[in-house]
Design a protein that fits this description.
Strand content: 5-15%
Strand order of the largest sheet: 2-1-5-3-4
Number of helices: 19
CATH class of the largest domain: Alpha Beta
Low-confidence stretches: none
Structural class: alpha/beta
Shape: globular
CATH topology of the largest domain: Rossmann fold
Number of strands: 17
Helix content: 25-40%
Distance between the termini: 46 Å
Number of domains: 3
CATH architecture of the largest domain: 3-Layer(aba) Sandwich
Mean pLDDT: 94
Largest sheet: 5 strands, mixed
Amino acid sequence: MDNKIKIQINGIPVEVPPGTTILQAARAVQVRIPTLCYHPDLTPWAACGICVVREARSPKLLRACCTEVAPDMNITTHDPEIVQIRRSVLELILSTHPNDCLQCPRNGNCELQKIAADFGIRDNPYPNRFEPIPRDESTPSIVLNPEKCIKCGRCALVCQQMQNVWALEFIGRGEKTRIAPAADVTLNESPCIKCGQCSAHCPVGAIYEKDETAKVWAALKDPQKHCVVQIAPAVRVAIGEAFGKEPGTLLTGQIYAALRRLKFKAVFDTNFAADLTIMEEGSEFVQRFVNHKGPLPLITSCCPAWTDWMEKYADDFVDNFSTAKSPHQMLGALSKTYYAKKMGIDPKNIYMVSVMPCTAKKFEIARSHDMGASGYQDNDVVLTTRELARMIKSAGIDFLNLPEEDCDSILGTYSGAATIFGVTGGVMEAALRTAYYLITKEDLKDVRFEAVRGMQGVKAATIDIKGTKVQIAVAHQMSNVEQVLDAVREDRKAGRRPRFDFIEVMACRGGCVGGGGQPLGATDTIRKARSEGIYRDDEKSVRRCSHHNPDVQKLYADFLGAPLSEKSHKLLHTHYQARKLYAR
């Protein structure tokens, strides 16, 4: 039965399913209604008022972002009165907004700036009511600049609804309203997990990543420093967006070439260490699952925002966390030990730059003492995908036309299993490919695990390893995690065996492809395209299992000995501890 609702938008007939908003219906017929507070990830709440439209039978204007269509609606989205109302709203917003676009990190990529340009706003009839408020630069990851805030509420909705962290909320009333942590503490004192999703959803320059490109430029100029660099899996399918390419475009070879033109002495790939992580973490899982050495479920620990959340809010799972460091931390340690020894370089001169899709990685590199078990800090600085894009542009590099180059193989060769670390379910899938081999001594014929793929918030499945049943769960986006943890807590309370043997968690929606340091404007459509690029990289790989990586095999033979060896534990593993600072 056809249950679609028939309406008209600017005289154009349109049929849409029940529950469709006027904004969504308009976009279906190529009519663009301006918005500032709306984002498809979030519950519409009509804060800004720019999306007002007229319905022929209604005496009042309707807000298109949150008003659902009804039969026989006759909508007008643009007329002189509506345009003037929108213009007035913009002028009022601009009257409390700093006029320093050239110094703003969102210059050229600001939603407010774009809409103001679309409306041709050159002068403002309202007096400026701007009040200086100090920036919050207390975290190593993100900066909160309340002067830029337009009170759209996106960051608070993200932090509360998507991430279930509640580090940001509205403070004050009326014109004094602003976004800040509860009790007006600093971000570093708040429950913030540095995931950066607030910055990824902010339409202006009120929240942004802490820019550390100046540190990298200075290191590259320092003749005493041997600058090396690594790139995370999700970077290669997203950086192209900063240069006009479609999301998911795979540009690995061009990134390697650009990094060499920036004068890095060696170009590595975090994917190499992702394979290494699987050897360590997969071995750890087999120890717990087969040999019963350690509690189940084993929980992955590659995501620093997730580990930060766990230490604060779920410290009863500290013993369940894999002790394996995240891949970029492993590679940082190896650059200052294995690579330094091979190349005859004093490790104190090695300067490791990690290019990550994640703002929390900036926090991770200094989170605990054993992140420098080599005697030196594993990684010296973290750049986001956005920061690297800016460096490439400022260096005048014609990025898209660069010939592809290879990475330095000593710490760069990777399997398909490594590259899928960039998507939700990828760490689990990569681990299962190798765990199957470690348990059965046989390779899988089909290495794809469809049960852990896709955008469903929580995915649970039973994996059959030649008659051995492994219960797994995959969660992404922090608001989805507690239901998995609570299920395990129920089993503990009842004295039952945990219903899950292996759990993967990623703090950001979609996994690292949707990280807080990726090019701005991510939606599920964009996350899906980036994920597809990651899976293409896996499928074209000659080797698709981590234990087949020949350079990882050589690393163990020449340096580490074996997975979970004493040297591996010293360099490649860490520990976690309760930091219960906030009541839930």
